[in-house]
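seq as requested:
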Amino acid sequence: MSTPPKTPKTKELRLALVCYGGISLAIYMHGVTKEIWKLLRASRAFHTAPDGAEFSAANPYDDPTDTEAVYFDLLREIGSHVKLRVLVDIIAGASAGGINGVMLAKAIADGSSLEPHRSMWLDNADVEELLDPAARSNRWSKFYMRPVLWLWNRLKAGGLEPEFGRKLNEEMHRKLSLFVRSRWFKPPFSGVRFARMLLDGLEQMPPSARKAAPCAAGEALLPPGVPLDLFVTVTDYFGYRQRIRMHSPPEVVEREHRMIFTFRDPGRDPGQKRSLGSNASLAFAARATASFPACSRRQPLRRWIRRSRKAAWHGRTAPP
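struct tokens:
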């Protein structure tokens, strides 16, 4: 009598992410969080197969070069030893990492897609798009800077490939000239435009589904009952008074500028919709964590989100 094959043990690999900040890291951090999102999707697809069939099932993805298909093959390969399930249930981030952490957390909680964010970062996160209209230079603004920019352009263009370098150099020169000749001594970028870009990015995240992937559209990337926590660090420009108990003197008062926005999806029962928070609150947190007083003018974003976009923001009211 033959002995039935042993079923591999199921183990969970739970990841807690800390996404660092930095202006130049925004697009890079998007790529990192997107790969983690693809790994989570592949893990979910692997575990949706019937027991015992996941190891012999064909790769369900259309494009074999997509990293999501590679992650699926990897999980299936190691599945003969351990049935691994990959989860992310804690995300913390600041600045560029905070923005991408917010987007990833939303995709995990409600099963939406990060695919549209590629165009958001490449097309909209641009000097020409984010400049405040009142700060934008015109043809004659700071005309004395044109010779300096022309000389810089000639010196920097030497190390680039002829055809590719010519197109890149023209674009770089145009945008650098626009930025340098725009408003000085006051923030050049528009906080409202930046907030609009982030809110649009959240609202344009469709339910994540692929033609051949065995996953329902809008299905969360966490099992029922598993909570998701998001922490977004921000800086309170004016600060608040904080009392610290000591020995001598007994108490001191100092000004604290650190704040943390917390979001929690408690992990609902099967069949119930999961939610990390409204798009308006997530956009506000993403915008606040990437605030630079010298870059973007301080503006009443809560009022703008509530009134001009009419976005639902439960528990918040716009000031008159």
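The chain is about 40% helix and 20% strand.
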